[in-house]
Amino acid sequence: MKSIRDSVHGDLHLEEFEVRLTDTPEIQRLRRIKQLGFTYLVYPGANHSRFEHSIGTMYLASRLARNLQLDEDTHTLVRSCALLHDAGHGPFSHVSERVLDSSHEELTSKLIKESQLGDILSEKFSVKEVLKVINGEGPLGQIISGELDVDRMDYLLRDSHYTGVAYGVIDVERLIYNMKLDDGILLLQSKGVQAAESMLLARYFMYPSVYQHHTTRIVNSMFRRCLGKLLEKKVINEHEIYRYDDTDIISLARSEEGYIQDIMGRLDTRQLYKRVYSLKFDDIDNPKRIFQMSDLTIQKVEEEIAGDLGVDKDFILVDVPEYPIFHEMSTPVSLNGDTVMLGDISNLVMALKDVRFNHADLCIYLPEEYADSASKLNFIDYLNL
Amino acid sequence: MKSIRDSVHGDLHLEEFEVRLTDTPEIQRLRRIKQLGFTYLVYPGANHSRFEHSIGTMYLASRLARNLQLDEDTHTLVRSCALLHDAGHGPFSHVSERVLDSSHEELTSKLIKESQLGDILSEKFSVKEVLKVINGEGPLGQIISGELDVDRMDYLLRDSHYTGVAYGVIDVERLIYNMKLDDGILLLQSKGVQAAESMLLARYFMYPSVYQHHTTRIVNSMFRRCLGKLLEKKVINEHEIYRYDDTDIISLARSEEGYIQDIMGRLDTRQLYKRVYSLKFDDIDNPKRIFQMSDLTIQKVEEEIAGDLGVDKDFILVDVPEYPIFHEMSTPVSLNGDTVMLGDISNLVMALKDVRFNHADLCIYLPEEYADSASKLNFIDYLNL
Amino acid sequence: MKSIRDSVHGDLHLEEFEVRLTDTPEIQRLRRIKQLGFTYLVYPGANHSRFEHSIGTMYLASRLARNLQLDEDTHTLVRSCALLHDAGHGPFSHVSERVLDSSHEELTSKLIKESQLGDILSEKFSVKEVLKVINGEGPLGQIISGELDVDRMDYLLRDSHYTGVAYGVIDVERLIYNMKLDDGILLLQSKGVQAAESMLLARYFMYPSVYQHHTTRIVNSMFRRCLGKLLEKKVINEHEIYRYDDTDIISLARSEEGYIQDIMGRLDTRQLYKRVYSLKFDDIDNPKRIFQMSDLTIQKVEEEIAGDLGVDKDFILVDVPEYPIFHEMSTPVSLNGDTVMLGDISNLVMALKDVRFNHADLCIYLPEEYADSASKLNFIDYLNL
Amino acid sequence: MKSIRDSVHGDLHLEEFEVRLTDTPEIQRLRRIKQLGFTYLVYPGANHSRFEHSIGTMYLASRLARNLQLDEDTHTLVRSCALLHDAGHGPFSHVSERVLDSSHEELTSKLIKESQLGDILSEKFSVKEVLKVINGEGPLGQIISGELDVDRMDYLLRDSHYTGVAYGVIDVERLIYNMKLDDGILLLQSKGVQAAESMLLARYFMYPSVYQHHTTRIVNSMFRRCLGKLLEKKVINEHEIYRYDDTDIISLARSEEGYIQDIMGRLDTRQLYKRVYSLKFDDIDNPKRIFQMSDLTIQKVEEEIAGDLGVDKDFILVDVPEYPIFHEMSTPVSLNGDTVMLGDISNLVMALKDVRFNHADLCIYLPEEYADSASKLNFIDYLNL
User: Could you tell me the Gene Ontology terms of the biological process aspect for this record (chains A, B, C, D) (predicted)?
Assistant: First the structure.
């Protein structure tokens, strides 16, 4: 047994098997991946790593498993899956994901299969079984990656602790205590509905404050363009993105010349691109079209604007907002013997269905030195929406 | 006015002048310097940066300045000095300091003079004045770098928040409220004695738990050897150490071959050297001699052990403990009209004078693969103590 | 200057004038009035007093006043009003209010006028001016008792701290920082909208969890009946209810015989009445009629049920829910130069308009020993809704 | 199973047997006994009850029992004892204890035997066994009432939470995790020594700040005199002191005339006696004599002073400080196979042996109106020390 002091949950205890998993280079790499990418340029405390989040998720998975009275082997399975669930994340976590062809779940599966993680796991479980759980299949999968999973609980608490934004403080105890396994389905008991509503709202409030804070979006867009260029030039091997850490990417970018070096230099010195345009959802009909803009379309828009401004096309960043997914809405709830969906019985959640798009807007960023000339453009014309 | 959300103190407000100082590459670099170096290998949450600490110190300096009723210009001076006080820190903060010839205070002075920081400052103050305050001279210097300074208050609170070790939680309000300027000397009022005792003990408890945790000492020794080698090979320019960030050093080390690459690889994968020997203070006469061991002596000991083990001398790390300095003991206290020293009126502080050496021990580390052969050696014989 | 350590806000500082107000028996009495009445029978930590809340409100008022850059006299006026705003509360705070003919605001005005509080105040201000502010008139009144007032901020934070229910943790800094006085109106800046939404939701979640928790409602109903009887028998002088503290009422009730002694004994030993009926809003048409049921109607219902059960009518408690008022919805917000209402621009707040009735239900309670016989009754028939 | 939300530890879960114990009038009475007596006149948040502390202690006992891997029955026994350990406390907890002939442990034993608590307990255990544990006998007794017991851990955390004084924040996890049962003795593992030192210091700092704060001592002395008078007049039955709650005593005192009513009125309105004399330990030889002053001696001193001042003897309160007991010093520690005492291996604890008397002083209080005349007296002459 080994114990690790976590700043959010206190002392976490690892069994020998878990220590072996943790001690692999694949899991240790997560110490060098920032959980919130470049958000530390907005919230200076947001330097926490995916490693902390992984062991924190393992801890919550363990509490939920105990509450569900899982047998010891299943308990260990759930803990191991929680520990590994993010192993495939590329540098800077989700920020890099949008540039890659594979999701972090796919990459995690690939990494586990080809690394010693698979070997260690197969001493106790079939790797296939593990991957199913990590990918959210079956009742155990619901614990790690379901509508109301421990992954989300941990990151809300953790991101609050490190950013200093209190919105993410949720009632984990009430949530975990009110989950039951029923006929192979993970159900929320009706007594936990309020805690679930509150968690949904916590996440909703974290969006504009942290995850989609307007400056966070600028730095993320800048970094994504930088990473895209590195991939394009094959400086980085996309298929092994889970071998790199944040340091690798930054130092590779610094060693490049031209555009890549320039944009990394701006990130280093926090000389950020400026937002020159914001298209709010209220401003157009059928605004959800925005989410469907293809990469090709976006690229074309960028090229046109760049052409008219007389600058390189990579200086124009058209930032389509992330679709605000709230799987929690479909959490199955046990209510008077029936199973219903949270979104169907909670008027507050119902309201959130629309409200969540409130803060979404399409933005255009470019270097400060071109902001003046850009102010003469009529951006809506380029968008063809 | 700009506001920054700090995870420890809440919203911090910056005036335009301070924003300009903060926006320099010199201060932005501090975002990429970990406050506690490689301690994140022991406490996974300890990823916080020297940037956060700098603005946190500015905040506390501001509260103290307001309590002392300083005029507006002096207030700004104190704030600026607090913001800049750590600007010269090398990568990984204090860990690198022991390898360098200059202290971080000297480097800070040099950096301010030769960078745009000096230019901005000189719009309002003489740079000389600023450097005096940063170096702890005069009553204003006492605020930033004195016996009971805001620098220490901030790092205790901050290191507690991020490591999850509660010992550093101190009563900042009571401390600040009980400081008074009297005839150019910053005095603690007697009502604040207990808060000061408690802060001293907080720091004392943080030593073995965090700052000198036995694993922290191993990783720090490993990194220092690595950095020493980089300096020796002139891969890094010692005189401009304040131009590098953590990422620079790590990627430079990774690009090297042989020993440097090896030891950085071990840090990356957390395959740490093992402690094969610990000499406790109780085990020898006049133990304080240990602190006086010269670098040359240490090197000789390492060489001899290496020779007998038949390994390269750099695989042997003799780690002399840091002398536990507690300047707080000499805090001047105003007591019934007299000025006395905290250490003279507090029996608890008096007791701490000896107690602080309790946890100090000289240690020897080497790679795990040599630990077995090393166990046959009689280390005390090499030390000549 | 005097300082008081508050468990929520830390050290609070009082000027000499405020110390004199605080030292009156009228304000000291508030130490002996529980902020949440009998809620401590549900949340054992909810023993906090209206005194703490009063000085906490004064502290927040002070921060807001400083942010609004009020001059020193006005600042003191606001602080004094915050300190006194609840002075007229009867024992057990709001629980008693529903039984009385006067609101606690009216009683506060009366008490200030007839006690030494008025004398002290009139050294600096006109009492009329003070009462206007306390009653929410004018821009200063908005600070203490407006749509988004410091009273509410304090009680949410405080009730969270003492009950252990985290929902009430709100972003006071962001709220206060985003309030501005504009042409005599206290406006929320648009940057603070999210913090206001979040506060509204915090309060919404506190309702079913704490303020209208189903057991809280039972104990409150029991106590109100007990108090009603004491008033009826003129054991207590309603017109001087602000002279009594919690202890007075309890010991007066214990000294009585019959029903009063019985029900107080049940509260003392936590042998609570049982809920035998709950009419949810969804169960009837036009449910808001419930809020309009007159005391006489309720009494008649109770009598009829008691008659059919063959018990004394005071054993039947028909509990009409409190109308969930959310004045925050009409908070004036400054948005692009216009002034709009929070409820008009926030879809989330709009949603809350209906959602807030979700948890409201009409309940019927009676002693456990009659619960069995009561289960045969068809309660809806008695209600004539 | 029932769950209770505690503001310090979160959700606590009670088994059916424990619910029955909790639902007795004897345990419910503890909701109406303030944990820190009249300390709320100094720290306005200190209104917490002995009930909260009892269930909090049960929770910590449970965590320790689980760590010690006790079997289920023994676990329940330990939990029940923790829940009941303070059942015999008189009103206002420890404040009343000094006036009574029996300790609260003796009263607890008596109460359990003569009430239904004994009947319920004897369904599962022998009452004798329970009393042994509550009184600290045997290894289980050490959990509840030993050198390093869960009672102390809970009250330090709880008193910190409610007073806002951070000193009591201790590392409960580390303490509990490092306790082991060895041959029937509860031992601290050497890895927990620092946490134990820190807890000892936490308690040490809480003394002058809270438990023996100079104003706390005044209000406690006032109340003790009041209670003494009530006992003397047989208004209260000393042998059944555990039948009364705080409200009973206050209302009984208010109904009295003369001295008793006067002093209770002063407590109600916080018109406290003034300290006119303080004899510090440094001022006399062999100062520990002070602790040995008999009640008779004290009474004589009070009479003589009263005589010379021409006032009733009850207006003079000579307050001998409490002997600062730190049983934690004798905590048995397992160190390299041996069992040693904490005080013998920790220099810090050794230092505390003397230091703890630093804040102790003998004080004399009397009503403000006599303070002037009293200032002419030479108090040391009356003391015969």
Answer: dGTP catabolic process
Contact partners, residue D102, CB within 8 Å, separation at least 6 = D110
User: What's the rounded mean pLDDT across residues A129-139?
Assistant: 95
Burial of C33 per CB tally in 10 Å (0-12, 13-18, 19+): buried
C185 contact A CB<8A: no
Q: What is the pLDDT of residue A96?
A: 82
List chain D residues with CB under 8 Å of A3: 177
Chain D neighbours, 3+ Cβ pairs < 8 A: A, B, C
Alpha helix ranges (H) inside chain A: 16-22, 25-28, 50-67, 72-84, 94-97, 104-114, 116-121, 127-134, 138-145, 150-163, 172-177, 193-206, 214-232, 246-255, 258-268, 295-309, 342-345, 347-355, 371-374, 379-383
Report the alpha-carbon angle B178-B180-B181, nearest 5: 165
Give CA–CA dist B225/C383, Å, rounded.
84
B11 bridge partner residues: B5
Q: Do C177 and B10 touch (CB under 8 A)?
A: no
Exposed/middle/buried for residue D128 (C-beta within 10 Å: 0-12, 13-18, 19+)? exposed
Write down the pLDDT at residue D164: 94
- CA of B263 vs chain C CAs: smallest distance (Å): 46
Give me the residues of chain B with pLDDT under 70, please. Answer: none
pLDDT of residue C268: 97
- Which domains are assigned to chain C? 2-213+341-354 (1.10.3210.10), 215-323+360-383 (1.20.1250)
Structure tokens that stand for A370 in this block: 């071109």
Q: Are B35 and B154 in contact (CB under 8 A)?
A: no
Residue from C3, C4, C5 to probe the interface with D (highest D Cβ count within 10 Å):
C5
pLDDT for A357 equals 85
pLDDT in tens, D23-33: 999 999 999 99
- Ramachandran class of A37: left when φ > 0, alpha when ψ lies in -120 to 50, beta otherwise: left
Using CA atoms, how far apart are residues C366 and C319, in angstroms rounded to an integer?
11
Report the mean per-residue pLDDT for chain C.
94
Positions of chain D with pLDDT under 50: none
Tokens for B357, please give them.
Answer: 């050496």
- What DSSP letter does each residue of D264-320 carry, written as one string? HHHHHHT-PPEEEEEEEGGGSSSTTHHHH--HHHHHHHHHHHHHHHTS-GGG-EEEP
Q: Are A162 and A46 in contact (CB under 8 A)?
A: yes
User: CA nearest B226: which of B362, B37, B33?
Assistant: B37
Q: Which residues of A313-334 are buried (b: 16+ CB within 10 A; e: fewer)?
A: ebbbbbbbbeebebebbebbbb
Model confidence over C293-339: pLDDT tens digits? Answer: 999 999 999 999 999 999 999 999 999 998 888 888 999 999 989 99
* Chain A neighbours, 3+ Cβ pairs < 8 A: B, C, D
Name B318's bridge partners.
B364
Please state the pTM of the whole predicted model: 0.95
**SS3 label, residue A274:** strand
The answer to whether C43 touches C162, Cβ cutoff 8 Å, is yes
Average pLDDT score over chain A: 94
Mutation site, D173, D178, D180, D191, interface A, largest A CB count within 10 A: D173
Q: How far is CA D320 from the centre of its chain?
A: 16
Residues of D in contact with C35 (CB under 8 A): none
Cβ partners under 8 Å of residue A68, min gap 6:
A143, A179, A180, A181
Q: For residue range C64-112, what is the model confidence (pLDDT) as tens digits?
A: 999 999 999 999 999 999 999 999 999 998 888 888 888 888 999 999 9
For residue B315, the distance in angstroms to the closest alpha carbon of chain C comes to: 51
pLDDT at position B35: 97
Q: How far is CA A7 from CA A53, D11, D198, in A?
A: 11, 20, 19
Mean pLDDT, rounded, of chain D: 94
ipTM of the prediction: 0.95
